[in-house]
Amino acid sequence: MAVWFPMFNIREGEVPSIDELNYNYLTITDVASGYLNEQNWTYNGFGLSTDREDYYENEIGLKIVSNSVEADPAYTAAGLTPAASPTVLTIPGTGLWHEVMTASIDSEYGGQLWIIASGALFAEAQFGCMVAIELNGSIIWQDALGSGDDNDLDFFIWQPNQPVHEEAVGPQGYHFAMALDTVQRVTAGTHVVKVKIRSGRDPSPRCAIMNRELIVIEMYS
Amino acid sequence: MASLTTFVDDGTAIDIGTVNTPALAIETLINDLLPTAMAQDALNDNHVSSLLCTEKWTTRAQSANPSIHTYSNKLTPNLPTDSGYNISTLGDPGWAVIDSSGSSGSISEILNGTDVLVGPDAGDRIAAMLVMGNVHFWKATVTAGDPGPELWEVSCAVGIQYRYGASTWVTIPRSVRFMSNKTHQRTGGEGAVTAIDIPICCLVQEADILPSQAINGFRLVVAWTVGSTAHFHSSVDVDIDLLEHNMSVIPLHASIA
Hints:
The complex is a heterodimer of chains A (221) and B (257).
Chain A lengths: L17 H14 L20 H5 L5 E8 L19 E3 L6 E10 L3 E13 L6 E6 L2 E2 L36 E11 L2 E10 L8 E13 L2
Antiparallel strand pairs in A: 1-9, 2-9, 3-8, 4-7, 4-9, 5-6, 5-8
Chain B lengths: L15 H16 L27 E4 L6 E3 L24 E2 L30 E17 L9 E11 L3 E4 L5 E4 L15 E9 L10 E12 L10 E16 L2 E2 L1
Antiparallel strand pairs in B: 1-10, 2-10, 3-9, 4-8, 4-10, 5-6, 5-7, 5-9
């Protein structure tokens, strides 16, 4: 908690105390040495609506790393360089995690990482997939996407497909979209973030990812 | 570290000088505060978020009307296949703007119409724009033609566009997502409801934007596409039904590593 100044009031008609005078000065310098908080700024001092960016500009404590793949081999807006090496990545049907995107971020002080992954997937009928974010070698299961496959309960996959002649309700699945995100607190140092997909039940690739994007935002706290 | 070197000394008469000298030193100190003067977590955790979600370019909108809206626009050529897709030449009518059908809560121009220069060194100091959209896909219905035994070759395509100038919209290719419908149906058949979200997260950076152009809007667009394999029997016409949708744009004052 910061200090409201002055600590001692000097009143008319009193002999001022030297100690109180000096405390009034010292409390300011002490608090200004690393203990200022939101109470020390004037109301709306940073701007609450339209002009906040005027104060913050580069000072905000965010760092971003990102990685993206563009799978449209031909499209580019006039004046822009076409995306390099557009690729569709097929996922081996081994049931093992397969890396599809990676990014590395150096955190100077530690803090929180907001990790966002998004992509366009497809998987053939009856061969689904599971998508997850991996941070420093550990799959973050809480934020994984996938659903149970009735035919293989040991392997929980996102199975948006059903046999095509069935009339049951559900996404047909050849194409579908995914977005994952998680907020993780990390220590200072280098952190490796990956997006992984696994698909199984058939040795042939039955799942692939087209457009994809991995965004890592470091938020100090 | 802030410090004082001049104090009111014991035994020294208090006069204007002895009071004002340390006060002036404090004035100098206050005017030269360093970032380290702030307590750890003082602003981030309490009042000022690291993400400036209240500045003028942070905008969000959503459809407030739960009605289903139907879009018949088609991308040509389209071809979302297992080797990629191609929207290089958009046929007639191309993308449809989501919400142009009259739903309340239009999200077609979500940046308040103000110009923003995006880039770490650009004047607005916005390194990137985090654009997040979500469209609730309801179903696809064949309205003309015979899709054959399998409709999974028919896909709903959703993407993000940005605007520069008065009315020039540019598609961000990597933002395009597809959703197929499960229903096996013939022309005029009742399509089964799929009801699934199509989420998109896209970090729009300087390289995505035409050189020297300030952007002033984002919007979600939709169309339908067909594949090209032997399963697909003939040309068809398709209606795409969407339900709710929303979109948020957050400018990030950040460094890009």
